[in-house]
Amino acid sequence: MNRDQLSREMQERIRQSLLSYSIFRPESAIVIALTLILTAVSLLGIPDLMWFPQWWMWMLFGLVGEGLIVLSTLRDEKFYNQVLNEIFHMRFDISSIRNQELRQKVAKALEYRELIGKEIERKHDPALDEYLTDTARGLEDWIAQVYRLALGLDAYQMDKIIQRDMQAVPQELQKYKELLVREKGSAVQADIERTVSLKQAQWDALNSLRNTMAKAQLQLEDTLTAIGTVYMQVVLLGSKDARSTRAQRLQQDMVEQIRQLQDTSNAMDEIYQSSGVRTAISGTAHN
Questions:
Q1: What Rg value do the Cα atoms of the chain yield, rounded?
Q2: Is the pTM of this model over 0.70?
Q3: Residue 25 zone, left/alpha/beta (φ > 0; ψ -120 to 50; rest)
Q4: Alpha-carbon gap, residue 199 to 131, rounded angstroms
Q5: DSSP track, the chain
Q6: Which residue would you say has higher pLDDT here, 233 or 173?
Q7: Which long-range contacts link 268-276 to residues 24+ away (Cβ below 8 Å)?
Q8: What are the backbone angles phi and psi of residue 135, rounded to the nearest 5°?
Q9: Residue 61, C-beta contacts closer than 8 angstroms, at least 6 positions apart
Q10: For 53, left (φ over 0), alpha (ψ -120 to 50), or beta?
């Protein structure tokens, strides 16, 4: 994938990884070792040869050699893409998703991203640059929202307390409503009313959470289908197609999908943070 097609944050992370790798490459270690040895030999005056370079020349040799290694590493497109894929997989670590079905969905989205990246690399038509650039940038946001949504769904589905409350709270609410009818006018009426109010608020929050999760599950399916459609379009895309109404509509759909995913994730977080639902899992959805 072209380097101009990535967000600044991702570019910076890749650059740091490339610089770190270039410094610890075997070639770099050899250059540094030779520079230190030959500089030391020159300073100690061991060689009795007039032509043996002075110590500063060996230091210059080391700096130039190391600079060339770093430059070649930064310009290595194959390694650049390898680092890019590794960063994506580290950033969106599917092993943290416990539900197998959700884990497979995120893996599928990451696979589509890699395939789309390869297709973009194969195309060398300047007329497509702007369209493909927007598509690639959108993919990063898309994958991030898919991952965030999957984490939230995973936390919800695996949370035994919430699943227990889904069963228990409506029964408890009904019980206290019946008790309120029997104890109307008694000294404990106000206490029961307060309990009913709290139980109702908890049940409303749980219901809202369940509806939001059902919507999130459907959105996840729709998004995977949409990413697959983008992949097919990139495969079949020609320079004339990039300006077509169909291509523009697909890009608009892509932006709208990202917005909807973000809205759903935000709604999920708000419900997690409400007083009626446990907040311990809300932080998971922010990753």
A1: 29
A2: no
A3: beta
A4: 52
A5: --GGGS-HHHHHHHHHHHHHHHHHSHHHHHHHHHHHHHHHHHHHT----TTSPPHHHHHHHHHHHHHHHHHHHHT-HHHHHHHHHHHHHHHT-GGG---HHHHHHHHHHHHHHHHHHHHHHH---GGGHHHHHHHHHHHHHHHHHHHHHHHHHHHHHH-HHHHHHHHHHHHHHHHHHHHHHHTTTSTTHHHHHHHHHHHHHHHHHHHHHHHHHHHHHHHHHHHHHHHHHHHHHHHH--TTGGGSHHHHHHHHHHHHHHHHHHHHHHHHHHHHTSTTS--TTGGGGG-
A6: 173
A7: 268/149, 268/152, 268/209, 268/212, 268/213, 268/216, 269/152, 271/205, 271/208, 271/209, 271/212, 272/209, 274/205, 275/201, 275/205, 276/201, 276/202, 276/203, 276/204, 276/205, 276/206
A8: -65, -45
A9: 35, 38, 53
A10: beta
Tokens describing residue 168: 């228990």
- Tens of pLDDT, residue by residue over 183-237, are 888 889 999 999 999 999 989 988 988 898 898 898 888 888 888 887 887 777 6
| HSE toward the beta carbon, residue 118, CA cutoff 13 A | 9
Q: Which two structure tokens, joined as six digits, stand for 172?
A: 């408890």
